[in-house]
Amino acid sequence: MKFSFRPVEGAFYELFTKAAQNLVRGTELLNELALPGVDVQSVSDRLTEVEHDSDQITHDLYKKINSAFITPFDREDIYRLGSQLDDVMDHLEAVGNLLYLYGLTQLPSLPREMHELIAVLDQQARVTADAMPRLRAMKDLDDYWIECNRLENEGDRAYRMLLVRLFSGEYDALTVLKMKEVADELEAACDAFEHVANTVETIAVKES
Q1: Which of 127, 155, 179, 194 has a Cα-to-Cα distance from 148 of 20 to 30 A?
Q2: Is there a contact between 61 and 82 (Cβ–Cβ < 8 Å)?
Q3: CA dihedral (91, 96, 98, 101) positive or negative
Q4: Contact 29, 46 (CB under 8 A)
Q5: Closest CA to 84 of 153, 162, 145
Q6: DSSP 137
Q7: What does the DSSP 8-state code read for residue 187?
Q8: Residue range 39-67, pLDDT digits in tens
Q9: How many CA atoms lie within 13 A of 116 on its CB side?
Q10: Are 45 and 80 in contact (CB under 8 A)?
């Protein structure tokens, strides 16, 4: 029989779960940008509020790491996971802010491939939020990182097709530069979700 000396410490798991739930809020706000007559500034402002909330969660997590005598798993892994969840939120906020500041939502329509990337991010956010509470038991996580990696590949394909669209001559040069910056943030967010999944896999292997 294996004995575990892991402390009954729920605060870390609660913070991871809250951080992941904020990512769902972030992708939901990005989806609002596709709605007709949307108040783009309002969406951008609310994304900034969610990002600030995520920053506070990350700060609370770091304080918890520094004050806890024993942690549920390696301090380095806790720090890395918290930092990577925060990185995703930073990219999501950047997407919303750039779309607003560059006035891109005033175009007749955003490229279909951009909406596809946002849809991928929304799926990644939801599978991540669903997985975080399962960290406590370190069970049934395989499907999560496999699906998150699959979605990242799907996002890569959408990103490449978006670049093809941008450089097809459909848009003027300045608009291409603006949308390329947004596209890069979308792609970086997809990658950041995969980094979270890879870290969860590493933690699960260590703890198994």
Answers
A1: 179
A2: yes
A3: negative
A4: yes
A5: 145
A6: T
A7: H
A8: 888 999 999 999 999 999 999 999 988 88
A9: 15
A10: no
